[in-house]
Every structure is written in C-alpha cells, then in structure tokens.
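Long-time lurker. I teach an intro course on protein structure, and each term I like to show students one example going from raw sequence to a predicted 3D structure in token notation. This year I'd like something fresh instead of my usual example. Would anyone be willing to generate the tokens for the chain below so I can use it in lecture? Attribution to the forum is fine with me.
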Amino acid sequence: MIAWSIETARNSGCFDQVIVSTDDSEIAEIAVSYGAKVPFIRPAELSDDFTGTIPVVRHAIEWLQSQYVNIEYLCCIYATAPFLSVKDIDKGLQLLINSNANYVFSVTSYAFPIQRAVRMNDSGRIEMVYPKHFGTRSQDLERVYHDAGQFYWGKAKAWLEEKVIFSSNTIPICLPRYRVQDIDTPEDWERAEIMFRVARMHDRS
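-- Reply from a regular --
Happy to contribute to a lecture. Here you go:
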C-alpha cells in the first residue's frame, strides 16, 4: 500500500521530494525501491502508537531545514490511502497556494446521520447519543463530515508552529464515500480490496 501512496505522489508532479518518515528498515527499503527518499530514521520518541501527525511532520521539516532545504508547503500523505488520487493532491496544493488557510485536507460525509447514533450502556442496553433528535427526520439533520485519512497539505510555518488542523483555518476537499476507506483492521482491508476492484472496473468501462 505504501507503494501506491509513493507512486501517486510522484505522478502528481507537485513535489520536489517524496520522503518517507519511518523507523522500520523494511519499510524504508520498500520506499526507496519505489522512488521515495528515506534520508533519516524517525526517532523512537515519535514512533509509538500515540504520536500524532503534526509532531512527525514537524520533525521532518526541521530535519530538512537543517540540511538547508527551503520548504514553503508540505503534504503529509498516509501510507494507508489506497484511493489517493493525483487530481486531489494537485487540487489541495492549488487551494492552499491561493488562500490564506493553514491547511487543506480530504474529508467525506458520514453515511448515516451521526445525530441519530446509539450506544450500548453499562447494562448492555441501547441509548441515543443525542436523544433530542429521536423524532427529527434524517433529511432535516445537518450533514457532517469526517477526515478521509488520505492527505494533509499545510504551510511549513503552520506545521512548525503545530497549528491545529481541524479548525476554521483549514479548507476541506470533499470526496465521495466510495473513494474513502481508512485501514485499521483486517475487515477494513477486505472492504478496501472490494472497493478498489469495483473502482478499477468502473474506470475501464
């Protein structure tokens, strides 16, 4: 999957360098074989399961600046983004350049109104998260979105100052749900494979 992200980034023509930040030698080797650079090994304190995206990107920018590389815009692309497209990467860069926003990233709408979400309580029974919306028609509820987990364009200054991404200083690129699948579990992987095959069939038709 990381090969897909690397090749899409390279094919976009938006980047002077495509760099992979990792602490894993096998991933580094694969990344280099597909044309990315791995000029540094990510430090252990940024390689656990709890470190966020912004500190990792900040480390990469600071390392590059220490090598006298001038950076104005940087895009963080996740390795688990099998539906990442050249068109969206380019659109994100153009939006960032032509605005006063700090970031641009991809989102998609929830498939079902989250205002009618339910949860299981301590007794194993159902309760509504937002009870006031029990009688509200689905079509009358506000449409809301979530992070598509693909890419995050940002101005170098914003990354370095660790500006919050989810804010009014960010522009969203809305993707259709059929092109979004985060991969955290084996079930996510199976779903992504099915969606990927269908998408390729559609492209060929």
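Some talking points for your students: The radius of gyration is 19 Å. The first strand starts at residue 73 and ends at 77.
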